[in-house]
Amino acid sequence: VQPSSISADLEFLASELMAGRNTPSPELELAANYLLSRVQRMGLQPGAAGRWFQEYPLERTRMSTESRLWIEVGDVRLEHEPLTGYLLFDRSRGTFAREGACVGIGDGSKPTLAALPEGTLEGLWAVARQRPEHLQSVRRRLQKSGAVGLLILSEETREDEKDESSLTATTRKALDGNVSLALPAKIGGDDAPVAKSRRRKREPFPILGLRPGATARLFAEFGSPDCAPGVSLELRVHAERVVDTETLHVRNLCALLPGSDPGRAADVILCSAHYDHVGVRRGETYPGADDNASGTAGLLALAEASVARGPLDRSVLFVWLSGEEKGLWGSKAYCQDPPLGPGLRVVANLNIDMIGRTRAEDLYITPSADHEAFNPFAGLVYELAPAEGFGPLISQDEFYSASDHYNFAKLLEVPVVFLSTGDHPDYHKPTDTVDKLDVSKIARVVRLGLRVLDATPALEFARAEATR
Ligand SMILES: [Zn+2]
């Protein structure tokens, strides 16, 4: 395990050129291609059913410029543009159009809405003069009572709305595009834990806030309406949101070191690290040197050392996952449809994420010996960590669901172990830079990983159903 080679990988992966390796981004693809060129030279085999990459789909929805909001008073129609004229306070996805007359809802509070006679809001736009408190519960109540949307006509910017960037965040996000994981429902239906757990789609319910300038113009023309609860207003609102949907693909890189024992080579020990990070925010690059260029480079070093040592009885699969920061997308996609050859099955997962910081002797583990998911594979880490100079292992069971091993445990039901060198003040900050990494510590974590792999022939893994 060469610290100098780890350093070279780190320098590239956490460089400004990588722009924080956001999922999806051109830089993430560049990082994937870099990793591919590294593993190809090692003499590993393509590990995604004969290919190097597992691709999985994302969906980007973007509010189109064809979207419209107009407010009519008599024959006069005032049209408003998103961001400058009005803001979105809902996260409705998908295309819809809502038109209707308006009725006031006062402050929109629970008692106010409860006091309205049944059917008052049916088919109408609810209108408030201020953004109601507890907007999401207000939305639920309005939606239940048959309102088609909520329009907020605020004449001034409230104290708690003065932070322009948080006030406009939802609107800017809708215009820039929301990206989500778009896994197809697995064929066969019942054994599709991922597809089943996807949230039920909610009916869109527009919550639109006219900005003070636009509200002032409206009121200047037509007088300011009393938005008393249940009182009809001389306004008609037409809101039409046109959403363009685009499918994108991102990749997990899979490199296989086939096992040498014909009786065990179908068993796959999967070693993983996510290579994505959070990208650029407000013009600042988040290099993600520890999170997780360290694990990405560490996994390259582990793969390289594994090839040099020669095959184990079982196969070892090295997987560089994308989309972790967005919600463990890469591992979710992997587990929904593991792209292994026929008969192969994952029997265990070693995941490394953030392995280059904190004191030399500190190593964090989950599941720890106290965790219900503790297993003999994780037990090897306890046994072997002292040989690499680590002190008593520190539990990070509070992060058991925080990285990709969680999906392997939950969806593939295999023993997992997650190693990290722990949290630090630069976590998810632009200051998570390469110069702060302890490269010799990364090398020690890698050597520990190698020791763990070397010790696995003594373990039996439960003979679960083949994953494919
Ligand atoms: Zn991470």
Explain how this protein is built:
This protein has about 475 residues and is of the alpha/beta class. The protein has two domains: about 270 residues, Aminopeptidase (3-Layer(aba) Sandwich); about 180 residues, 3-Layer(bba) Sandwich (Glucose Oxidase, domain 1). It is about 30% helix and about 25% strand. Strands 1, 2, 9, 12, 13, 16, 17, 18, 19 and 20 form a ten-stranded mixed sheet that branches. About 5% of the residues have low confidence. The site of zinc ion has 7 residues, from α9.
| CATH A-level architecture of the largest domain | 3-Layer(aba) Sandwich
Helix content: 25-40%
What's the structural domain tally? Answer: 2
The low-confidence runs, each spanning 5 or more residues with pLDDT under 50, are: 187-198
**Sheet having the most strands:** 10 strands, mixed
Number of strands: 20
> How does the overall form come out from the CA principal axes?
elongated
- Oligomeric form: single chain
**What is the H level of CATH, i.e. the homologous superfamily of the largest domain?**
Zn peptidases
Q: What is the overall pLDDT average? A: 93
Report, as a whole number of angstroms, the end-to-end distance.
34 Å
Backbone CA Rg: 27 Å
Question: In CATH, what is the class of the largest domain?
Answer: Alpha Beta
